[in-house]
Hints:
The chain is α+β, with helices and mostly antiparallel strands. The protein has helices spanning 2-39, 77-86, 106-117, 177-180, and strands at 42-54, 59-61, 68-76, 92-95, 103-105, 123-127, 131-133, 136-147, 150-154, 158-160, 165-167, 170-176, 186-187, 191-196, 200-205, 215-217, 220-225, 227-243, 255-263, 277-280. The protein is 22% helix and 43% strand.
Amino acid sequence: MSIVASFFNNRLKISLRQERAVLLVCTLIALLFWFFVKLSKSYRSEYVFDVIYLLPDEEAFLDNPPAQLNATVEGEGWDLLHFSLFNPRSPLIFDLRDFDLPSLDRRYLIDRLQRKVVASNVRIADLREDLINLSYEKKVSKKVPVRASLDLQFAPEHHLRGAVGIEPDSVELTGPVSLIDPIEQWRTDSTQLEALQKDVQVELPLARPQQEVIQIEPALVTVTVPVETFVEKTFLFVPVLIKNAPDSISIFPSTVKIVCVVGMSHYNEVSATDFTVEADLQGISPR
């Protein structure tokens, strides 16, 4: 009896496995059929096309045109899938070296894009850009001095020892002549340096131009801030000089004390002879 039961159990398991396999195959066939039906319908998809503009070497844009075009592409699912997977990502090129084209309107852009995708059996249904302005003019280069935008805060009894150094002290600007000509200098990004008590050297980026068509070379400069300790130095007997006074007038005291603050590097260079104290008595009557 147990042998018969075991035989029927094994047959039942085999039958269940076969039914599951058949069900799985049927499900896969249904999914493939559904997939083919879906791909045979028409769809729309967003697509980005890269753009390159070729200008004569002596010209520059007044405002950079867009580097990409955002288009709606329409076609059957199969064609859109093939277009997305196998369409070469070569950019759309507008060569302005041989003809003067002040702008690219919507109709012209769609026509150029359609010619690019015609082999893929899809069409350009819509384009986000309405007009691309291509204003450009003569390109020039100009060297201008660099100015450091610094907020310097010193530690107590410390100050600048000399002028702030900038290397290189000038940069080259390149762009359209109407934007470059008025520029007389170029500043670094604003930077704050705190508690300065010794020389500091930092690399600072140059301020970004408001117009992206302006190119700056180099983009970084090295700024050196010379710092030293300042101390008090006292001169006790500096004579007072009298101007416009009668011979009969004398003053008291005839010398004064001067206290100055001087950097340590110049401490021994400063003497009493560097100071003049004058009393101008013109228009003053003795009582």
